[in-house]
Amino acid sequence: QESKKTKIMSEEHSETKDSKKGKNRKEKPWDTGVEHWKLDHWTEEDSKMKPLLEESSFATLFPKYREKYLREAWPAVLAELKKYHIDAVLNLIEGSMTVKTTRRTSDPFIIMKSRDLLRLLSRGVPVSQAVKIMDDEVNCDIIKIAGMVRNKERFVKRRGRLIGPSGSTLKAIEMLTGCYVLVQGSTVSAMGSFKGLKSVREIVEGCMENVHPVYTIKELMIKRELAKDPNLKTESWDRFLPHFKKQNQKRKNTKPKTEEKKPVETQGKDTLSATATPTTSTPTPPSTLPAEDKKDNKDKKKKDKKKNEYNPFPAPPTQRKIDIQMETGEYFLSEEAKKRRELSERKAKQSVVLQRRQEERARAFVAPPEPSHASPSPRAHTKGTEETISAIKANLSSTEAKKRKTQQGPAGPGKDYLLDSKKRKT
């Protein structure tokens, strides 16, 4: 019965709640067809209002390398600001730019826009692009990326990743977000709508935290395609978006390999020898050694290690730099004496280095050692001469024999051959 009563009470309570919910909600005919989020532009009718009571001003510093460009482009900046009745001053001595309101300025927010214009100019944005910030629908965001990464090399690498090869990544970000993005030094300047600036900031901060911009670019591309379908406006897009998981890549083993595999030919030889001599005993590996041998090895290792001697007193404190200077007497020297000492030490080091370099240069002019020609023994000399004489004699005898053969003809000696030839002629 109690459970039934509680159920009835809860139903009554819910009914009263529903009745109270839409009690004061009535149709408002005067509020139909009005866009509450629309930004109305400042018109001439609004400028007929009373002038501002006090002067507002903003100043920004600019780097030295921008001085030349700003001096050339300053007339164009003044001409743009004159439309909104704002005065600007360029101070080259201090390296600053200042904007202030005048008696004629009527738009109270235009001074904030002009401040953003100066900030963009100081961060490397050209005048033709920076002037667009004066429009109410265009906003800017300057993201500081210098303190996000401590290591300089890593910072430069990640900043380059944001730009991409020949600026391809930056162009893709600009196309998808509809913003103008400029990476300059330790800042990233962006111009566009609030929605686009939010996505640009996410990409930049993610890139500095070692998340590649390609992942966010891919997500933006998918969202862009999904926005075209009117049926998916009320649905969640999580099932279409990619979900990337962190993967810890295993590092390659850089340790040198102790055991190298034998080539195929040698392995074959080893197998043949093993088959030929099966009775030969093979050495046991360290894993198959008996327990007694293992104990002996452990005892030897323990003996090799030197035992640290027990010292009841604590270790002496490390000396400070001042204590060491006081011991050496450097602490009590005057500044001039210290400088003289430093100079003498530096000169001594320089002289050692100079001497070493001179020796290295002199090595190029030292003649190489000549080969030693040892005089032969008289016996060896006589032997060599005898051999040469005998060789010459043998050559002479062979040449004489050849001459004799050529002089003799096929019919006999040379004279008979000549007589026979004369007879034939007659």
Task: Explain what this protein looks like in three dimensions.
- The chain is mostly helical.
- It has helices spanning 2-21, 67-82, 110-122, 127-130, 152-163, 168-177, 194-208, 213-227, 264-276, 291-304, 321-328, 335-363, 378-407, 414-425; strands at residues 57-61, 86-91, 96-101, 139-144, 180-184, 187-192.
- The strands form two sheets. A three-stranded antiparallel sheet has the order 1-3-2, covered by helices on one side. Strands 4-6-5 form a three-stranded antiparallel sheet, sandwiched between helices.
- The longest helix is centred in the last third of the chain and has 30 residues, at 378-407.
- The radius of gyration is 50 Å and the shape is elongated.
- The termini are far apart.
State the gist of this model.
With 426 residues, this protein is mainly alpha-helical.
List its salient traits.
50% helix; 6 strands; three-stranded antiparallel beta sheet; mainly alpha; 426 residues
Mean pLDDT: 78
Q: Catalogue the unreliable spans.
A: 259-289, 410-419, 421-426
Q: Radius of gyration from the CA trace?
A: 50 Å
Strand order of the largest sheet: 1-3-2
Measured as a percent range, the helix fraction is: 40-55%
Q: Helix count?
A: 14
Class by alpha and beta content: mainly alpha
Beta fraction: 5-15%
Oligomer state equals single chain
Termini separation comes to: 174 Å
Shape: elongated
